[in-house]
Specification:
There is one protein chain. The two termini are 32 Å apart. The relative contact order is 0.15. α1 packs across α2, α6 runs antiparallel to α8 and α7 crosses α8. β7 and β8 form a beta hairpin. This protein is an alpha+beta fold. The strands form 2 sheets. A 5-stranded mixed beta sheet has the order 1-2-3-4-5. The chain is built from 12 helices and 9 strands.
Length: 363
């Protein structure tokens, strides 16, 4: 988008920037429409319909929370956008959309897709190190050892070179497979490091895990913050769930105890379980995984899911009155996709450079 706008500014210096922005958006929209229609006819219109339905759902839910006038909105997914809209920095806000109402600014995080349990946040390696009480750079050293093996041992220069080798197949496929196996092993090692660190911190402070889960799913923001989940189905429809993030955090009060599931080093996922008041059983509360980009030389980060959060909206009036949520009829209940289970991939061959650095820490 930025490159397109820069080129238009060069080609048409006589036009004001706001006019060029409109041209850029139109050109980008046409490109997206063409690509989507090529891959799946009707998908573009389906997404637009879902967006319109989601917008109406947001308006309804905001009205139920006392926000009846929408004065202005802004897309705030880039660094600095939040401050431009509100005049304040907020490191805890991951709002994709900021809305100014008669009561002030509010944030909305937007989630779209088929999964029942959506990815709530993407902590970076430095954030994971800090949360798990690890040394600075401890996760990064695993990442760097992996990169070193891929570049200096396997000879993959960069991501474009990786894509070339992947397209070639044949004898190049072994190099591609070794690079991906090394990345997978790095993910598993990072996950175990974080799980072990969280276990240690929990043993030192009985309330640590409660705070960690709360900060992971709903950190305190300066302005009221909602999360909208538009969940699609196989019939082209969608259901919508929107909740105040602090209401989600309050659901942790239903739990008496939390624990970290021991990590065996064979998974990219680690889990925290909770025991509800009056129950003897533990259930999954927080699942985090170490994910990588689209190739072995792309970055690593965490993803966060909270299986215990419900996806059923209360009736509009109930949000104000505080009554119990309305029960959905079986007839209207959408098909449920089971949450992803913890990956238990067998050990893959890994680069020597990665093995030699596995005990030194991560960055």
């Amino acid at each position: 988008m930025r490159r397109l706008l820069n080129q238009l500014e060069k080609d048409y210096p006589e036009f004001p920037v706001d006019h060029l922005v409109f041209i850029s958006i139109s050109a980008l929209d046409n490109y997206i429409k063409k690509e989507l229609e090529t891959r799946n006819p009707g998908l573009y219109e389906q997404i637009n319909r879902h967006a319109s339905e989601a917008a109406q759902h947001v308006r309804d839910q905001l009205a139920a929370h006392g926000h009846t006038k929408i004065l202005r909105t802004a897309w705030t997914s880039q660094e600095g956008d939040h401050r431009k809209f509100t005049g304040e920095d907020d490191q805890n806000s991951d709002a994709d959309l900021m809305i100014q109402t008669e009561n002030g600014p509010i944030g909305v995080s937007l989630k779209y897709g088929k999964n029942k349990n959506v990815n709530l946040r993407n902590p970076g390696l430095a954030s994971l190190e800090n949360s798990a009480g690890l040394n600075s750079g401890e996760l990064g050293s695993i990442r760097d050892a992996h990169y070193n093996y891929v570049v200096n041992t396997l000879g993959i220069r960069n991501h474009d070179h990786y894509k070339e080798l992947k397209a070639q197949g044949g004898t190049s496929q072994k190099i591609v497979d070794d690079a991906n196996a090394s990345a997978l092993n790095a993910q598993k090692m990072m996950a175990k490091k974080v799980a072990d660190g969280l276990t240690t911190r929990a043993s030192q402070n009985p309330e640590f895990l409660r705070s960690y889960v709360r900060d992971s799913i709903a950190p305190q923001t300066k302005f009221q913050h909602f999360r909208l989940h538009a969940r699609t189905d196989d019939r082209g429809g969608a259901t919508y769930h929107m909740s105040d993030m602090q209401d989600d955090a309050a659901k942790l009060n239903d739990f008496d105890d939390f624990r970290v599931v021991p990590h065996d080093g064979k998974s990219i996922t680690y889990r925290i379980e909770g025991r509800r008041k009056g129950s003897a059983d533990y259930e999954p509360v927080l699942e985090q995984s170490i994910k990588k980009g689209s190739g072995p030389l792309k970055g690593f980060a965490g993803i966060t899911k909270a299986p215990f959060l419900t996806k059923v909206d209360k009736k509009i009036g109930s949000l104000v009155a505080g009554n119990k949520p309305a029960r959905r009829s079986r007839k209207n209940k959408s098909s449920i996709i089971p949450p992803a289970t913890t990956a238990q991939n067998p050990e893959e061959p890994i680069g020597k450079g990665l093995i030699d650095n596995s005990h030194s820490g991560m960055s």
